[in-house]
Amino acid sequence: MKILVSADMEGATGVTWPADVLPGTPQWERCRSLFTSDVNAAALGFYDGGADEVLVNEAHWSMRNLLLERLDDRVQMLTGRHKSLSMVEGIQHGDVDAIAFVGYHTGAGAEGVLAHTYLANSITGVWLNGVRASEGLLNAHVAAEYGVPVILVTGDDLTCKDAELYAPGARKVAVKDHVSRYAAVCRTPTRTAADIRAAAKDATALAVRHTPVIGGSFTVELEFDAAHLAAAATVVPGVAACGERRVAYTSGTMYEGIRTFKAVTTIVSSAVEEQYG
């Protein structure tokens, strides 16, 4: 049994504001330990449940945040940027039985601690086939194309609620309760590590590959906080304006859909100017 852990940081224990997750800040340095604790707890739980392999894919910002030296010796970690499938890199090789979303958060425009979708700001909403989409929902659709179930989701309480839309059978662990985008009632790392480990152990029973969901039509719509960002996004082939600050594109697979999404966000981030956005 091989489990892939997609590890994001905004939904980690104790994380509540931008400095906690921005590489290079003193707060980020402190929160790296909390983030690593959550990920390690998930890995330990999967091993407790009978997993043979756990591969952790770093999915936050520079994708160089976790402290490798504090992970269980059995864990392997994929770290660094410019990966074909970004947050779910590694799922495409046919040897992953299940995936866990650790440290996840809600999507752009929604309530939730540090809520966003790919870009920290600039994107005010994302919809997949008309449904507001978090990173979790987008990534779950990619996983489904490879027959890989989402078996564990951790983050704030609203992230766990969001996960009911795309992984209703997955085990969920709320490590904090949302108060505002930059405030939460947090549990201690000792408590969250125990909760995550127990849930991961239980979740291994769900690590059964499904029949891949192949084909379909996936329309992704993005809304930005400025019209020039929408215009910049249309540089990507297949992406067209559908409103003053909106663009949309349609893909035949979510593999193509998530890669186009990555291209759009890369182009848009380069068009953001300091102060005015």
Mean residue pLDDT: 98
β content, as a range? 15-25%
Q: What's the helix-strand series?
A: EHEEEEEHEHEEHEHEEH
Structural class: alpha/beta
Distance between the termini: 45 Å
Q: Indicate the overall shape.
A: globular
Number of strands: 12
Query: Strand order across the biggest sheet?
Result: 3-2-1-4-7-8-9
Helix content: 25-40%
Number of helices: 6
For the largest beta-sheet, the strand count, sense and barrel status come to: 7 strands, mixed
Which regions are unreliable across 5 or more consecutive residues at pLDDT < 50?
none
Write up what this structure looks like:
Strand 1, helix 1 and strand 2 (53-58) form a beta-alpha-beta unit. The protein has a seven-stranded mixed β-sheet with strand order 3-2-1-4-7-8-9, sandwiched between helices. The chain has a five-stranded antiparallel β-sheet with strand order 6-5-10-12-11. The chain contains six helices and twelve strands. It is an alpha/beta fold. It has helices at 26-48, 135-145, 157-166, 189-203, 227-233, 254-271, and strands at residues 2-7, 53-58, 76-78, 98-102, 123-128, 131-132, 150-156, 171-180, 183-186, 218-224, 240-243, 246-251.
Outline the fold blueprint:
Elements: E1 2-7, H1 26-48, E2 53-58, E3 76-78, E4 98-102, E5 123-128, E6 131-132, H2 135-145, E7 150-156, H3 157-166, E8 171-180, E9 183-186, H4 189-203, E10 218-224, H5 227-233, E11 240-243, E12 246-251, H6 254-271
Parallel strand pairs: 1-2, 1-4, 2-3, 4-7, 7-8
Antiparallel strand pairs: 5-6, 5-10, 8-9, 10-12, 11-12
Helix pairs in contact: 1-4, 2-3, 5-6
